[in-house]
Amino acid sequence: MSAVAYKKIMTNQQQAAAFGEVVVPLSKSLPLATFAASTEIFAPGQAALNIYQVEFGAVRVYRLLSDGRRQVIAFHLAGESFGLEAGATHQLFAETIIPTGLRIVPTDGASRHQIDVTALALQAMASAQNHIMLVSRLTAVERISAFLLDMANRQGGLNHFDLPMSRLDMADYLDLTIETVSRVLAKLRSAGLIRLRSIRRIEIMRPEDLHNISA
Amino acid sequence: MSAVAYKKIMTNQQQAAAFGEVVVPLSKSLPLATFAASTEIFAPGQAALNIYQVEFGAVRVYRLLSDGRRQVIAFHLAGESFGLEAGATHQLFAETIIPTGLRIVPTDGASRHQIDVTALALQAMASAQNHIMLVSRLTAVERISAFLLDMANRQGGLNHFDLPMSRLDMADYLDLTIETVSRVLAKLRSAGLIRLRSIRRIEIMRPEDLHNISA
DNA sequence: CGCACGCTTGAAGCGCGTCAAAAAAGGTGG
DNA sequence: CCACCTTTTTTGACGCGCTTCAAGCGTGCG
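Output (structure tokens, whole complex):
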């Protein structure tokens, strides 16, 4: 990494910039579509017509490289929206991770459901820009720490929360291998920063320390 | 890198997804603001009120980490637009790289100038997603090759073009050190793929080979 | 002309990936 | 509820690509 020392200092506000998503009113009036785990929601080539709001469950959005490697662009949890893309057709895959309920809102009728498409697009842009920093400038320990804090914040801010996704999903999101993810979690655990209640259930023991590491 | 072999294959369309920007009609009716090299256009904390269209010159948009590391989010060349952010205030820095002329369009009056803010945001999102792949999944040689091809395409597609930015700017954009940038350029030169007419002027000798490397 | 800054080149070290194997978790049918 | 099998996760040893640290080199501007 280029650790050239620049003069300007990052503000707290910037550091606190969340990885999360806009919270918009869920369109309860629309029918709830339910999906089993690991079910495709959309795929490249399909027309991008809808905005999807997660009622419950979790979704991964990703792309595949020509050599078969996978890049997870984003996870979407309850209360969050996804599905917007730059062109008329999808370039990305979206799949449920666990059993999931979605409200499907046609993009051209979004305003009727109080959805601000521009705000959603801007949030997605900011989120992607944050992700660049995450994968390009942080060490493995910093990435995992930031990721755990982000997951905690997006699930109510409690120190005790679920990781809906597998280690492989995390690895492909954070640009690490599953081995490194596993090793870093073990390291954070033995340092007393977190506890692994079960394989996909985390308790953050020392949030401040984790936050310091994640910067 | 997680090189797990997934089954789905990336389409050519996806691979060809450009790193470039939307081309919107320039608002020639607005006054042209000119800036010297290395001049701040906006900084974190300032109100985000405008969209900036580059008439000539080049701009870097970046953020700083608390420890002084810099992440260049994007470069903007003649004909491109920037300045959109998710909140009411800027989180990012924008600076000219070389002497630059800008048309400054108030966001709230963008539609009068035929600017689609949502489309601009979605393009920025797609560009950031491409950037994630660039910095997280490609080797140093692949990143530089992709970057050079992108720069060539965005300046008319000629094989002979200017790099307006310094090696440090390139390094902070590609998530490499200046030493690695320098070494890779030397390697591409000695392999006969490019020529360095001057320190910031590149000629691509074998575009196809460079393209093959960049994937 | 000479100094300063950006760029290049070299040598050594380290963080994370790769390869390998064991351990744990999760289904499935009896 | 328990054997059995599969998949996921963890742990270990080793290697490589890039960073780091350190000198030289070139180029432009006062």
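The first helix of chain B runs from residue 12 to 16.
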